[in-house]
Amino acid sequence: MKLITLLWHNVLHRKTLSLLTIFSVAVTVALVVFLLLCSNGIEQGAEKGYGPFEVTIGAKGSASQLALNTYYHIGAPTGNVPYKLLEDVRKDEFVDRAYAMTTGDNYNGFPIVGMEPEYFVTRYGADKQMAQGKLYDKLGDTIVGANVANSLGLHVGDKFQGAHGLVQGTDDDEDGDAADEHDHHHSFTYTVVGILPPLMTSDDRAVFTTLDYAWAVHESQQGDNKEVTTILVKPKSLLGAQSIKTKFGQISNVQAIYTSKAVADVVNVVDKGTQALSVVTVICILLAAGSILLSLIAAVNERKKDVGLLRLIGKSKRFIWVSLIGEGILLTLIGLICGILVGHAGGYLSREAVFEYSGLQIQTWHFMPGEGLLVVGTLLIGVLASVGPAIQAYRVDPLQLFKS
What is the rounded CA–CA span in Å between residue 155 and residue 341? Predict the structure, then answer.
């Protein structure tokens, strides 16, 4: 009998216990794979989440909040800064490009972002073409991110009205001027003139329009009262970034931040949360190892005579040891393969929901660095869990098993 046939026969002989072992390994591996996908999504998002804009200028407040709202469209802005500040920033000798952004409204929960159209060329390159339509060029024109278009079924030529607030249903209590502002929001019509291609950033889930939309909707911002939410700055050099931050960070009620540092601070906080989840993962791994161990211990009594017979007919120690440990490795390997497939499939099926909820882009069906360690570690656990029962079965005196 070939060794692999023997191992497979032993597995099928105890279907229920074997399936339980495979299931526990698969669930554990799938959980680890999903965590690796999310972690990889965080790293990828941090790397390309803000493009070349190394300095961000906005109202005083939390640097992390400013970065999250500006580049990830998460949370509320820290406030507004005067529009005339943009002119001063652009005149600075160390500034290569600077663009203003306005926010404050939403459409069905997706943020409406006022942004100068040159932003897309600077961030994504001139070779990045629209999936459909064209860039906006007049008040009321909009382009929508790929995720927004897919979620809401929007097409070029569609019209809609926005709502006040960064998420759906957050309008302020309406009385007096607030009620007038609400009415004006619903009387201002946007027209979709273009749909962005998948950019694999948070811009996929935003609606973009001209910078002056906020001034048109919020009539209080006219003349010298015009304000913007944020100014995104691409410096000419890293030394220039330091000069820009120092110069404009000294202005009253204005903060200038290193974007990379603010994003890194957020990622570090998320990493701490991931570490907490790792404790749960370790517990699952121990349970899976225990399941393998119990499965093999339960098989020892059933297989003692088999092992004794193999020894009596002269099978080599190597064959016997491999047959004993091989069952645990086979169960572990099947569970490992199933877990990897389930983890990636789960990531693929939930990628849109995860993206809409957290802004994380999950890239599935490709090998991640951590998966190699996962494969080696899982198989090692299978081997270690198999050694004890194998020793117990091998030490039994074969002649004692066949005495009447």
Answer: 35
